[in-house]
Amino acid sequence: MEYQDFLEYIKNHIVQVLGQYRHAFGKEDITFDPNEYEVILQKISKNNGIMLDAITLYKEGQKISPNMYVNAYYEQYQMGRPIDGIMQQMIMDYEEKMAEADTLQVDNVYHFEEVRTKIVVRLINRERNQMELMHCPYIPFLDFAITFRYLASKDALGVASSMISNQEFEAWGITMEELYEIAICNTMQHFPWRMDSLAKVIAECLSKDVMKLLSEDVYQAMLEVMNQQCGVNMYVLTNDVGINGATCILYDKVLENFAKVQERNILILPASVHEVILVPEEEDTDAAFFSQLVRDANQSSVGLIDLLSDQVYYYDREKKEILSYPVGS
Fold first, then answer.
1. d(CA 226, CA 233)
2. pLDDT tens, the chain, 329 aa long
3. CB under 8 Å to 30, separation ≥6 — which residues?
4. Which end of the chain has fewer surrounding CB within 10 Å, N or C?
5. Contact 197, 223 (CB under 8 A)
6. From residue 57, how far is each of 22, 41, 174, 211, 303 by CA, in Å?
């Protein structure tokens, strides 16, 4: 089934599957009338200008109408998963979000005091998001844009947020400097930073069942071998949930203290919007190597929607600021 046919099939059958799901799981107490639902198919702009197809089940009176992004489900279909099973999974995901909505506090984003503690920052690529940036407040930073988002929820199901628009920012009547100071403090509180060696991060990606078989001594020995294989000391900086963790380079004192402990300037490799890799600079550091490493990773491993930058940066411990790394030097 081609993608457009897949879209139409989902659109025409998803409400029926919702009814079957609620009946099968004993939710007869929920009055279900398929005619009350409007199925909306729309394109949603995501990071780096990526457009995703979303199906929304709109019912008047609902607190929220979650978007179900079809692109990822189509990938499952291409790998052989039956379409009926895919729609059941879509409805299960939908019902989880609807259950979350029952406890979700809906704030009036135009009222600054209601959302003051829920405004956070996000670091994105400026050039790739030019259209989006026309409609929202942001601060240029190197080749990034520091944007602002309303944090609706953060829990075991994930993070839900929305971009602050120019209209909302203007309604607040505050300056960009005030907005940034408030938002960065909120971000550090809601999303604490964490840092681990690259070797440890790789080890943690192994199956937990495998890790249970290793003693602490063996585990530490494995980490040492991985560090040796890396050739240099590399550290992954992200936040507590690993989502949009590259923003942590903006956190107060994080890079400053790390550079002080290492007694070196720190190279910053933008692995994705979710994390950066930090490398203490050595006398023989090959900037061209790391620059090529970032470009190769972006082309082969990082999805376009998660791409942050092709550049390499460094934290200058004397100037106490982040700069573009001079590849030609």
1. 10
2. 899 999 999 999 999 999 888 877 765 555 677 788 899 999 988 888 889 999 998 887 776 778 899 999 999 999 999 999 999 999 998 888 887 766 666 678 899 999 999 999 999 999 999 999 999 999 999 999 999 999 988 877 678 899 999 999 999 999 999 999 999 999 999 999 999 887 676 666 554 555 555 555 555 555 555 555 455 588 999 999 999 999 999 999 999 999 999 999 999 999 899 999 999 988 777 778 888 888 888 777 667 888 999 899 999 999 999 999 876 54
3. 22
4. C
5. yes
6. 15, 9, 36, 42, 28
